Amino acid sequence: MTDYLQHAEELFPYTQAMRRDFHRHPELGFHEIRTGGIVAQELEALGIEVTKGIGKTGVVGWLEGSRPGPTILLRFDMDALPINEETGAEYASTNPGVMHACGHDGHTAIGLTVAKMLHTHRNELAGNIKLCFQPSEEGTYEEEIGGALMMMRDGVLETPAVDKTLSLHLWNEKPLGWIHIAKGPVMAGAEMFAVKLTGKGGHGAQPHTTIDPVVAAAHIVTALQTIASRNVPPLKATVVSVTSIHAGTAFNVIPQAAEITGTIRNFDPEIRQLVLERFEQIVRGMASSMQCEVEITLKQVTPIVINEDEISGRVLKAAQSVLPGTAIDTTPYLTMGAEDMGYMQEKTGGCYFFVGSANEEKNLNFSHHHPKFDFDERALVTASALMATAAADLLKSLPTH
Question: Has 137 been annotated as catalytic?
Fold first, then answer.
């Protein structure tokens, strides 16, 4: 059996160099021109067939094994975030206001490393690998949909059809050495909401002549907190977070309108429906009681990421083989973070796993999306070895079409 861990160790200088280069030059969703160009160049240098422009700035590599078999898609996200970096690292962002604050630079470097390993051992593969380098996992306001859906619209799961998917996330909520592979839901489904309240503006000294949308907004924000506390069963997790309120321009003017935005997240389709119904009832009821007109926009951002039992079991066996002695966490581990990989897994099924990347001793333990976020690069070796092993083993175990 191929020792992908040893191979990943040998390739670590390459993986680290690629990760640091991507970190220095972060690009926002659907703007990953440089990143995607380097990815395509590296894949083409291996002799891998490359298709560019899938999902606008996405890149897909096609790797055929020596024998017919299923097709596995490996997803690696490439985009950065609109955050000013404060790490002080020598490889810190050179793009002001943009940084890799979620580890996608590491994911892209892992993808290229996995491509090298699987290409080297392609004669051992019974089937095909689609290397999917995805843009805009974090989402963007420039498009109605994120990178996964955009790539799906461009046929990434077709021609030929993808049988299963594998994806991962470096995870700074847990220390280096922690691996999580579990069945069932792992990341929440997410909605984005916007509420516009229209009242009647006027002078702050004459509130009786107005219909105040600010007061209505305040009541709505407070009332929405009762959904999780009074409508959802205590053992069923849900989040209803108001994250912005915009109203007014002057201290003595009651504005004409107020806007509220936020997010709803949960792991259960029935709970999701309950929460959405209560959200509408509360917002419309409260707005009516305050004499305000209301417009509600609700948009699904991602579905729930749910791991298939059989595929997760096979990934677990692969992890146990390539990482002997590692205590792999298979207990339910749910995060309210959302992932558009849920759209692909909804269509094809697959496994999404986590690789611990924090190191408190090195002060590499800031959370994702923090301006000081960074991770222990030794996690790149573990993640690359596990992804390559899982992909190769899955090709062997899935039925041939």
Answer: yes
**pLDDT higher than threshold 70 for residue 114:** yes
Q: Residues 394, 395, 399, 401: is their CA dihedral positive or negative?
A: positive
Separation of alpha carbons 129 and 126, rounded Å: 10
Query: Which structural domain, as residue segments, surrounds residue 238?
Result: 189-301
Say which of 137, 163, 212, 374 is annotated catalytic: 137
CB 292, CB 200: distance < 8 Å: no
| Total structural domains within the chain | 2
Task: Say yes or no: 193 and 282 in one domain.
Answer: yes
Amino acid sitting at position 56? K
Q: b/e for 75-90, b at 16 or more Cβ within 10 A?
A: bbbbbbbebebebeee
Q: What is the pLDDT of residues 191-249, one digit of tens each?
A: 999 999 999 999 999 999 999 999 999 999 999 999 999 999 999 999 999 999 999 99
For residues 80 and 159, membership in a common domain is answered with yes
The single residue of 32, 42, 77, 79 carrying the catalytic annotation is 79
Give the tokens for residue 338.
């959302």
- Number of H helices and E strands in the chain, helices first, is 10, 16
As given in the structure block, the two tokens for residue 161 are: 């059809």
Token pair 């009647």: residue: 200
DSSP letter assigned to residue 267:
S
Residues 171 and 210 in one domain: no
**Class of residue 317 by CB neighbours under 10 A (exposed 0-12, middle 13-18, buried 19+):** middle
d(CA 77, CA 386): 17
What average pLDDT does range 177-185 have in this prediction? 96
Tell me, yes or no, whether 282 and 365 share the same domain. Answer: no
Answer yes or no: 329 catalytic.
no
CATH of the domain at 96: 3.40.630.10
Strands 293-302 and 179-180: unpaired
CA distance 40 to 36: 6
Query: How do residues 89-102 score in pLDDT, each as one tens digit?
Result: 999 999 999 999 99
Contact 204, 252 (CB under 8 A): yes
Same domain assignment for residues 173 and 87: yes
pLDDT at 141 over 60: no
310, two tokens:
């059989």
